[in-house]
DUF2779 domain-containing protein
Amino acid sequence: MLTKTDYKNYLECPMWLWLSKYRPELLPEETSDLQRRFAMGNEVDALAKKLFPEGIEIQGYNKEGWANTQKAILSGSKILFQPTVIEGDLSCRADILVKNKDDSWDINEVKMATSAKKEYVFDVGFQKICFERAGIKIRKTNIIHINNKYIRHGDIEPEKLFATDDITRETDKHLPETEEGIKEALKVIKIKEEPSLELINGCNNSKRCEYLECYCNGIKNIQSLVKDIQPKHILALLNREILDSKKIKQNILDAAGYVLPEKFTKIDVDAIKKEFKKLKYPLHFFDYETYGSAIPPFNGMRPYQQMPFQYSLMVKDSPDSVVRHFEFLARTFENPIHSLLAQLKKEIGPEGSVIVWYAKFESGRNKEMADMEPDFADFLEDVNDRIFDLLLIFKHKNQMYIKSEFNKLASLKIVLPVLCPELSYKNLAIQGGGDASSSWPVLTSDKTPAKEKEQLAKNMLAYCKRDTEAMVGIMDKVLRDIK
DNA sequence: ATGATACCATAGGCTTCGGA
DNA sequence: TCCGAAGCCTATGGTATCAT
């Protein structure tokens, strides 16, 4: 049986589909970030249903769902939520099915994205094929997506939060391709033995594909796979922890004809000194954690707007002084920016540089908050004028501070372990901004036990503090290197 | 999932120039 | 005078990099 999810997995990476059917235990665990995204998707689905007050919910999955769907259609229901269809090898659920004046139906697929992306034609095409094979005629296929111009005032208004795009033409145009893809996907799920190289190289994932890595955890003879593999997958193999033997790594590299670049460090002392001349003490090392959702949680916010709920601030008054640390963390699920700004205004001095990693992010949040809290607009503008972006020292094209280990990248999570391995995130419960973000609603929920909240708060504070410690450590290291 | 920005490949429109 | 090749500029679409 091939479900719509199976088909989408296949389109991204055939190996993913195969693993999900035969070796699901090898798939990566759901991260809290992913869980939050699923939860958000469910909320979006629920809100979209409010666009159709007449709709009825179809209960059950698979055969039961299909039986209930048929029952609802026969009894004359005109709007169905979550109808299921099973036909031959295929199984799928639609979001919202709406009957027309004749005997045809329109498919409405709810997406949390802010536009009708072109890859949705395969998703919706799969649904159309399923329903039509089962004798349910489909006229239009629509995408109901988030309208990111919407600004919340009071209760969420679904008819303003959502926009609908008719993608029938595009869907139909790609229908033959969709049919072909379904045939291929069905072939994949019939492979009983270990998949061949062909399957791995069918991967369409533009980024590093984690599913090959997962697969490698489950087989012994990795070296036999190496010939003719895509370069992105070679790197994936090299990152596997099970490849701790240098000899195996070298074999893989040799087989692929891949030469690791030689290690090097390049420091343009003059250029960095010139940049650092712009700095004024006291130095304020600063970092926000933010929360954003497809459904804006508070008034004045638009979908996906990132709202700061936490910061860490480390102040260094002079080159040799000890840092003073300040922090803020909102403990209730209310718009936190007023209290955040009130505290920040007291803690951040009127003089001195504000050092951040990737200035666009922090300055962008400051601009948004200035619009929402006009009383703080001058203050925020002043802070933005004093921002210094530490990332630009490491930006590859700037050629100021380059190490081969950076691989031409310059995120904090890449630079830090090379320059200050002692400040690793490894021992922290929260390891990235995404986790911090998804922790905030948990921290502020009535349903979370007090004890758990305390632990969570500690973890969140430790993470955000570490981001600023990292900048302090990196700054010290660079200052030593250019002395 | 967003968004700003950077970068790259490609397409199209336009001019220029040499050969016939 | 005409035509196509070559060169150049701009627009566009796609992908990647940062942050959460």
Remarks:
- Chain A has three domains: 31-185, 198-256, 269-481.
